[in-house]
């Protein structure tokens, strides 16, 4: 009895205000979509950091002199440098790679571009130490310590390149979350406004309800549920938008990067896990806004 | 049933009190006219009973409710024991006659089987059997007021408050409505009716409480509207 009555009140309310309801649903949807994008990027960056940091190395490139004359790193200054590296705290492994091995690796990496391989002579590839660190984020210590030492040509820190990529992704995340916040503000105002309009168009009903002794809860519940229903529809639309974005945008533009594992794929499962979060946020925010509006602005 | 003890009400926007030290007692089952010119305090009187307002001074009792002191949470209980009828009917235009009456029960959470049983009963009592499925705009003013009375009475209130219930009706229809209110009064319901209608007050010969400038200036057990008015 109670539920069917409340339900029919909610449906009438939403129908009577249909343009406002649509505006409310759309802003909520966009806001939650951007919020979802932000969360997905956070997730992505986390995964990438796990994937990449494990493989990250600092390459200590050696001078041409060593590269040509000391194939097994048995002479000074190469041997000294190796000992220094191995005994440094925080260093996990040190692998010496001479010019020939380096050239082999180069050929392998650029297999697909034979003209590049043809152009490069082995003499251009330096011998190097490939250093893995226990904490990959502390690579700057090695750079500082070994840059400019005798026998060292330069120190190449891969994590710097990665930092630039993460910086970009974090920027995307921040922008998405900031826009989500702005849209959320718009959604809040719309929800609040819709409830006020809705309460005004139904003032006769509400007046009678109060007069015959309906509880405050009973008079206000339909308005509250109206807001929550619109919020949930918005959340569902946002999830739909995320799926569409994945299938029609991400999969097309970044498909190759996904399949070659350069960027971890945004999977359907992830979006599915996000769905209840978005719905929950929608319910919480719309119910809270509705409640506050009814308390502060609508005298029922 | 209704008791006011030294009740004063001053609205913030006015320096003159709307009610000024009013004390009156109305027993269970009485039929009382509340008369007086516009602005004499009749509406404030009724609003205090419903706890639409709280008195600035004094105490208000309706049935067992200490109206001025009760918590907000209990106000719905009070209102469920009071029925209200107005000059402008206040029906829901999008609902049928039966739905309008049922609405009053639905919103206080009465079970459906009770509603389908009592709504036809009360429609018959007010003389609207056969018109349950009409829309309000298809009815005459008198019939619309009957719907409003049915809605006010369907939950069997202890008190029925009527604020100028005949104000929009012609004399003949007004007489019919008064007969209906009398019938409701005979079921034991206390009826308090604010009115300007001389002929009705004069013909009914019931208790008359007259207000002027927020004070009770007359309380006759079997009164008329007023000599020379």
UniProtKB/TrEMBL annotation, chain A:
Location in the cell: Cell membrane
Ranges of residues in domain FtsX extracellular: 57-155
Keyword Cell cycle appears in the UniProt entry: yes
Entry keyword set: Cell cycle, Cell division, Cell membrane, Membrane, Transmembrane, Transmembrane helix
Gene3D superfamilies in the record: 3.30.70.3040
Chief subcellular location: membrane
Family matches, as InterPro entries: ABC3_permease_C (IPR003838), FtsX (IPR004513), FtsX_actino (IPR047929), FtsX_ECD (IPR040690)
Protein topology in the membrane: Multi-pass membrane protein
TM segment ranges: 21-42, 175-200, 221-251, 271-294
One Pfam short name: FtsX_ECD
Residue span, ABC3 transporter permease C-terminal domain: 179-291
Function of the molecule: Part of the ABC transporter FtsEX involved in cellular division.
Family indicated by similarity: Belongs to the ABC-4 integral membrane protein family. FtsX subfamily.
Oligomer status and interactors: Forms a membrane-associated complex with FtsE.
Protein name according to UniProt: Cell division protein FtsX
Underlying gene: ftsX
TrEMBL record, chain B:
Coiled-coil positions: none
Record flagged with keyword Membrane: yes
Keywords, alphabetical: ATP-binding, Cell cycle, Cell division, Cell membrane, Membrane, Nucleotide-binding
Free-text function comment from the UniProt entry: Part of the ABC transporter FtsEX involved in cellular division.
Subunit (UniProt): Homodimer. Forms a membrane-associated complex with FtsX.
Protein family per UniProt: Belongs to the ABC transporter superfamily.
Name recorded for this polypeptide: Cell division ATP-binding protein FtsE
């Amino acid at each position: 009895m109670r539920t069917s009555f409340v339900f029919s009140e909610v449906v009438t309310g939403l129908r009577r205000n249909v343009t406002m309801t649509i505006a409310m649903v759309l802003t909520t949807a966009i806001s939650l979509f951007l919020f979802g994008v932000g969360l997905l990027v956070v997730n992505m960056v986390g995964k990438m950091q796990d994937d990449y940091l494990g493989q990250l190395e600092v390459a200590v490139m050696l001078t041409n002199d060593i590269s040509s004359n000391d194939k097994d790193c048995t002479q000074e200054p190469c041997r000294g440098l190796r000992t220094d590296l191995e005994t440094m705290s925080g260093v996990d492994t040190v692998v010496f790679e001479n010019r020939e091995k380096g050239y082999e690796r180069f050929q392998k990496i650029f297999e697909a571009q034979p003209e590049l391989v043809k152009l490069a002579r082995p003499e251009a590839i330096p011998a190097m130490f490939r250093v893995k660190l226990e904490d990959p984020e502390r690579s700057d210590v090695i750079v500082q310590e070994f840059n400019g030492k005798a026998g060292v040509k330069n120190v190449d820190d891969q994590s710097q390149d990665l930092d630039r990529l993460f910086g970009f992704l974090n920027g995307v995340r921040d922008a998405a979350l900031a826009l989500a916040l702005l849209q959320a503000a718009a959604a809040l105002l719309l929800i609040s406004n819709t409830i006020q309009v809705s309460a005004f168009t139904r003032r006769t009903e509400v007046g009678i309800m109060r007069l015959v002794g309906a509880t405050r809860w009973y008079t206000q519940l339909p308005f509250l549920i109206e807001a929550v229903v619109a919020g949930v529809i918005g959340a569902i639309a946002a999830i739909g938008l995320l799926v569409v974005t994945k299938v029609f945008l991400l999969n097309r533009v970044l498909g190759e990067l996904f399949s070659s594992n350069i960027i971890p794929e945004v999977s359907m499962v992830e979006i599915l896990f996000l769905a209840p979060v978005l719905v929950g946020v929608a319910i919480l925010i719309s119910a809270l806004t509705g409640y506050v509006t009814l308390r502060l602005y609508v005298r029922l | 049933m209704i008791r006011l003890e030294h009740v004063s009400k001053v609205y913030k926007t006015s320096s003159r009190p709307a009610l000024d030290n009013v004390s009156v007692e109305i027993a269970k089952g009485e039929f009382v006219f509340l008369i007086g010119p516009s602005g004499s305090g009749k509406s404030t009187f009724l609003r205090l009973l419903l706890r639409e307002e709280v008195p600035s001074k004094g105490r208000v009792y309706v049935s067992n409710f200490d109206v001025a002191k009760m918590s907000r949470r209990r106000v719905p209980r009070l209102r469920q024991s009071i029925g209200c009828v107005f000059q402008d009917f206040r029906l829901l235009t999008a609902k049928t006659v039966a739905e309008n009456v049922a609405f009053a029960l639905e919103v206080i959470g009465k079970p459906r089987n009770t509603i389908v049983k009592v709504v036809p009963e009360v429609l018959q009592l007010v003389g609207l059997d056969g018109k349950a499925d009409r829309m309000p705009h298809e009815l005459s003013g008198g019939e619309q007021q009957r719907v409003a009375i049915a809605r006010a009475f369907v939950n069997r209130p202890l008190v029925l408050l009527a604020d100028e219930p005949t104000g929009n009706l012609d004399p003949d229809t007004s007489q019919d409505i008064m007969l209906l209110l009398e019938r409701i009064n005979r079921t034991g319901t206390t009826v308090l009716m604010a009115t300007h209608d001389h002929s009705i007050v004069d013909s009914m010969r019931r208790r008359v409480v007259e207000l002027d400038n927020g004070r009770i200036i007359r309380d006759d057990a079997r009164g008329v509207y007023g000599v020379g008015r």
